[in-house]
Design a protein that fits this description.
CATH architecture of the largest domain: Beta Barrel
CATH class of the largest domain: Mainly Beta
CATH superfamily of the largest domain: Nucleic acid-binding proteins
Strand content: 35-45%
Family: Belongs to the bacterial ribosomal protein bS1 family.
Structural class: mainly beta
GO cellular component, one term: ribonucleoprotein complex
Number of helices: 5
Number of strands: 17
Shape: elongated
Protein name: 30S ribosomal protein S1
GO molecular function: mRNA binding; structural constituent of ribosome
Number of domains: 3
Keywords: Ribonucleoprotein, Ribosomal protein
Radius of gyration: 24 Å
CATH topology of the largest domain: OB fold (Dihydrolipoamide Acetyltransferase, E2P)
């Protein structure tokens, strides 16, 4: 299966730059049906995109701006939001203006159709692919999985440790790995937490008796949940004036594998604004069928099944 990438991934590659070098190279790309990228400079009043091709001007007509634009199932914001960003496209033809200057006619829609047929439609649950975060909502993150084709990563699939908003994990433009969770009626749902390691892999980074950094995730009547890593949280004893979102220094009192428990004591908390770091992945393969988060000696088994039934 040929790999397709999120928009922006190939913009600065030698192959893409070479294809935009001169008219002859653009002609070759047109003949071969090559997918290229260039930066969108302007969206005009008719919502056509003007694209910088280096050696000439390129135009993506409104109806060719994205899959679904022509049918009315996708709003024009999908075009407008690409201004000053890389866009993928295929060259469909060339035309001369009244002064004899050549303009390349481009289609982002055609690039997305090719990506859909040759790549997206061949994906199955459990496949691990590259993605780029495009925008964040309270219920999840939207990610480009290839040529501007968007899929949803629900908030509860981002990490084992619960968060209030995806911005606590991601920033727009961040490149991540994701797993195809489900495909229903053409809609793709993603997952992410299974790539962040099992309970055992995460707890191995810590030892009882250490004082470490954490993030307060929730304050309950029976204790305070503190995140030690995106896939690991411990329970601390109650303490006054602690609120979710604070950074914390916590003492690790004990680690109980059979119950997947990390008992903590909060030493100090403070407010701190931070920018999410790139995720650390424990799994590097290109497919996962079954993920077992819980350790072998645990009283409870926590499993994610991805294999198609």
């Amino acid at each position: 299966m040929f790999d397709y990438y999120p928009e922006g991934w190939i913009n600065d590659t030698p192959e893409n730059r070479a294809a935009l070098q001169n008219i002859s190279a653009l002609n070759d790309a047109c003949r071969d049906g090559q997918i290229l990228e260039g930066r969108a400079l302007i969206c005009d009043s008719s919502h056509n995109l003007l694209v910088d091709l280096g050696c000439m001007k390129g135009i993506i007509p409104h109806d060719e701006g994205a899959l679904g634009i022509r049918e009315g199932t996708v709003r024009d914001i999908a075009i407008i939001s690409r201004v000053n960003r890389p866009v993928c496209f295929m060259i469909t033809s060339f035309q001369k203006d009244s002064e004899g200057h050549l303009t390349a006619l481009l289609s982002r829609r055609a690039a997305q159709e090719k990506c859909m047929e040759e790549y997206v439609k061949k994906l199955t649950p459990g496949d691990i692919i590259n993605a780029r975060i495009t925008h964040l909502e309270s219920f999840g993150a939207f990610a480009d999985i290839g040529c501007g084709i968007i899929a949803l990563l629900p908030i509860d699939a981002i990490s084992v440790s619960r968060i209030d908003h995806p911005r606590e994990r991601f920033t727009v433009g961040m490149d991540v790995k994701v797993i195809i969770k489900s495909i229903e009626n053409g809609r793709i749902t993603l997952s992410h937490k299974e790539l962040l390691g099992t309970w055992a892999e995460n707890v191995a980074m810590f030892k009882a008796g250490e004082t470490v950094a954490g993030i307060v995730r929730s304050v309950e009547p029976y204790g305070i949940f503190v995140e030690l890593s995106p896939n690991l949280a411990g329970l601390a004893e109650t303490k006054e004036d602690v609120v979710p979102g604070q950074q914390a220094s916590v003492y690790i009192k004990s680690i109980i594998s059979s119950r997947m428990k990390v008992k903590l004591v909060i030493i100090d908390t403070f407010d701190y604004s931070y920018r999410p770091a790139a995720p650390r992945y424990f799994y590097s393969g290109n497919r996962i069928d079954r993920f077992v988060y819980s350790p072998p000696d645990s009283e409870k088994e926590i499993v994610t099944e991805f294999a198609s039934k």
